From TrEMBL:
InterPro entries: Bact_OuterMem_StrucFunc, OMP_bac, OmpA-like, OmpA-like_sf, Pal, Pal_lipo_C. It comes from the Bacteria. PANTHER family: LIPOPROTEIN YIAD-RELATED, STATOR ELEMENT OF FLAGELLAR MOTOR COMPLEX. This is Peptidoglycan-associated lipoprotein. It comes from Paraglaciecola algarum.
Amino acid sequence: MQLNKIFKGLIIALPVVTMVACSSGPSEAEQEAARNQAAQQAEADRKAQEARDAQIQAGSVSKVLTPVEEMKQQLEALQNNQVVYFDFDRASISSKYYNVLDQHAAFLVKHSDQSVVIEGHCDSRGTPEYNIALGESRAKSVQTYLLNAGVSASQISVVSYGEEKPINSYNTEAAFAENRRGVLVYQ
């Protein structure tokens, strides 16, 4: 009877042992592929970290600007280049200032909440009345250029100071040339 119990136990255990043997883990090739993939990922992560560290050491990581900070930065750059100079007794814009005015126009189109006053100035030659009119013509030339570039009329105002606000008070040709200008002043 005891032999019978052992025989029955073997009959029950044999399929279980067979099942355990057949349900083996991943093959050697699968294990090797998984190890290779893990090694490649670790190498890629290491190289990415080295690149980030190198950028930080070189100081080339730039701060991400908010839209307000970006607008202020653009405005500061424009304010460093806001003057258009005119020839004697002329109100026409020289082609060398088109790029400057295009930059101002692009900024104003992009930032419709910004406004600009265009100041027209003259040198001291001519009557005060004539210079006021010429300063206004110069400012309106700049205004027309900006309007043609897509800037809204509500963003632009014009004022003429004539000869009242010279930036160079000498009576030389160089001083006169500095005073014949249109200035874009942001509000």
